[in-house]
């Protein structure tokens, strides 16, 4: 039974900490190690440091019910495929003592899937450094295009894997994976009317846009700044936990997660497009639809903030929803943000 005097977030963290410590013995080479929580969102991720050798690793403890074991296995297969067939720097899974990548921890009648990954050096891009961010988005455009090229070139094998679907229905429609934006914070009657109009416009435009093979496939689905690591001139991609089947342009929209309303976003878009087009073509029609994907992601994040309890959602609060009004109105008026 929950203790009413304990913060619900801290209670969840205590549980994940216990599970992480339970999973560590599955990796015999970590017999002397310490763990430190790095992030708690859809899952909990920990920095694991080998006390003897000083080696670092990342341990991910998945939230029960979010993915099936087969879905996690599919994610890891894609990671190994990307590593084999591209030059993109990613974190790779590590086998446990039982020769399995996924360690299953049973806790209070629930199963937690735990995976150890290689550690990558670097820091997330700084959203406050506009000029640096614009330069980084050029490189991110190149990397994103490489990911999409890999997805298209390996479609026959990748289409068989079991992963989430990120389309209108699962983002804003009848089966939203992250909850309904209507249940988000600060949804007033006027705001619900505004966002409903935006949502309908998104639906209509996506129906016309279609799901052709060069527009829709296996994507990372969460390329936000927190999932990028910058080391000198290099950008590395982490956290494929939400990878699934969706529009390639949705990948770009996720790169602008939580900063969609910032005044420098048009410059980020222009820089990303230049980088992307160095690797693969993107038509003018596709470019014109970028605001549609940005608004779809923004409404999805309103749902996420309203349905999750972690440090990020507490920090964003009502203001994140309120800051959406201006870009929502511009999108309705002229299809831009």
TrEMBL record:
Record family assignment: Belongs to the pseudomonas-type ThrB family.
Protein name, as recorded: Homoserine kinase
UniProt-listed Gene3D superfamilies: 1.20.1270.170, 3.30.200.70, Transferase(Phosphotransferase) domain 1
Signal peptide limits: none
Keyword field: Kinase, Transferase
GO process annotations (BP): threonine biosynthetic process
Molecular function GO terms recorded: homoserine kinase activity
PANTHER family listed in its UniProt record: AMINOGLYCOSIDE PHOSPHOTRANSFERASE DOMAIN-CONTAINING PROTEIN, AMINOGLYCOSIDE PHOSPHOTRANSFERASE DOMAIN-CONTAINING PROTEIN-RELATED
Residue ranges annotated for the Aminoglycoside phosphotransferase domain, each copy included: 41-282
Natural source organism: Neobacillus vireti LMG 21834
């Amino acid at each position: 039974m929950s203790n009413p005097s304990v913060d619900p977030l801290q209670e969840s963290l205590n549980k994940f900490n216990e599970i992480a410590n339970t999973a560590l013995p599955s990796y015999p080479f970590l017999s002397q190690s310490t763990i430190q929580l790095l992030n708690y969102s859809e899952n909990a991720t920990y920095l694991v440091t080998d006390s003897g050798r000083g080696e670092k690793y990342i341990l991910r403890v998945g939230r029960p019910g979010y993915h099936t074991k087969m879905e996690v296995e599919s994610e890891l297969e894609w990671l190994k495929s990307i590593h084999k067939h591209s030059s993109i720097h990613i974190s790779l899974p590590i086998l446990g003592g039982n020769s399995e990548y996924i360690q299953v921890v049973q806790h209070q009648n629930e199963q937690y899937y735990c995976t150890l990954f290689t550690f990558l050096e670097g820091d997330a891009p700084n959203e406050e450094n506009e000029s640096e961010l614009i330069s980084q988005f050029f490189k991110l455009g190149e990397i994103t295009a490489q990911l999409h090229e890999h997805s298209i070139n390996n479609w026959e094998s990748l289409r068989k894997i079991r992963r989430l679907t990120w389309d209108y229905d699962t983002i804003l429609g009848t089966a939203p994976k992250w909850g309904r934006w209507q249940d988000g914070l600060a949804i007033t009657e006027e705001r619900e009317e505004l966002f409903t109009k935006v949502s309908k416009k998104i639906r209509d435009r996506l129906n016309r846009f279609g799901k052709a093979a060069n527009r829709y496939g296996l994507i990372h689905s969460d390329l936000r700044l927190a999932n990028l690591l910058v080391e000198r001139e290099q950008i590395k991609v982490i956290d494929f936990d939400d990878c699934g089947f969706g529009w390639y342009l949705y990948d770009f929209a996720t790169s602008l997660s939580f900063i969609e309303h910032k005044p420098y976003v048009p410059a980020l878009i222009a820089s990303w497009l230049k980088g992307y087009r160095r690797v693969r073509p993107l038509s003018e029609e596709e470019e014109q639809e970028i605001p549609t994907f940005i608004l779809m992601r923004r409404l999805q994040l309103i749902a996420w903030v309203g349905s999750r309890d972690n440090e990020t959602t507490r920090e964003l609060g009502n203001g994140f929803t309120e800051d959406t009004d201006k870009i929502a109105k511009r999108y309705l008026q002229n299809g831009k943000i």
